[in-house]
Amino acid sequence: MKLLLISDKESPYYWDYYQPGRLDGIDLMISCGDLNAKYLSFLVTMGHGPLFYVHGNHDQTYDRHPPEGCDCIEDKLVTYKGLRILGLGGSALYSGGPHQYTERQMERRIRRLRFQLFRAKGVDIVVTHAPAQGYGDGEDYAHRGFACLLPLLDKYKPGYLVHGHVHVNYGADIPRVLHREGTTIINAYERYVLEIPSPPER
């Protein structure tokens, strides 16, 4: 299964200079936030698979003009072709805007998902906007990661955590891929193509 992971910056390859066929072979698209709603609608129109998204801290307009044809997975666990995907968008609270959360608020959101996780018997991909604390987050207040994501990873051991928020062009030392035990952590800034084995149908 081939996934297109996107976040924070509209890719010229897929938008400004798009050519027919560039999304061929992509089974699923996942947005980690802070992208133009029209861009997401364009991708789902030109592609052959669905597009799931969570909110970034700059996605205030989604409330009035959501991405057409796309599926918001905020605070949900959805299954697509056997792949269990959990959505937890937003960033750490830094200015009081929408889609910003304190550590305690994010922890409560995770607790409310316990039954869905139990019913699905775990999760394969956790989709966030902000990273987990200590795994690709920034040193500044606005880009710090959530510590409460770490127990989630340790308990359910998803194959992947996919996030955005920290732009890889902020510095040459910002990693694209990190690992925490059995979980691969990917910064989806602009675009990242992930190929994984097709999971069993559940």
Could you explain how this protein is built, in words?
This protein has 202 residues and is an alpha/beta fold. It has one domain: Purple Acid Phosphatase, chain A, domain 2 (4-Layer Sandwich). It is built from 4 helices and 13 strands. The protein has helices at 37-46, 103-112, 114-120, 149-156; strands at 2-6, 28-31, 51-53, 71-72, 77-80, 83-88, 91-92, 100-101, 125-128, 160-163, 177-180, 183-187, 192-195. The strands form 3 sheets. The protein has a 6-stranded mixed sheet with strand order 5-6-9-10-12-11, covered by helices on one side. It has a 5-stranded mixed sheet with strand order 4-3-2-1-13, with helices on one face. Strand 5 (77-80) and strand 6 (83-88) form a beta hairpin. The longest helix is centred in the first third of the chain and has 10 residues, at 37-46. The relative contact order is 0.19.
How is this structure best summarized?
This protein has 202 residues and is of the alpha/beta class. The chain is 17% helix and 24% strand.
Mean residue pLDDT: 94
H/E series, N to C? Answer: EEHEEEEEEHHEHEEEE
Helix percentage = 10-25%
How many structural units, i.e. domains?
A: 1
- Enter the CATH topology name: Purple Acid Phosphatase, chain A, domain 2
- CATH top level is Alpha Beta
Number of helices: 4
Q: How many strands, which pairing sense, and closed or not: the largest β-sheet?
A: 6 strands, mixed
Distance between the termini: 16 Å
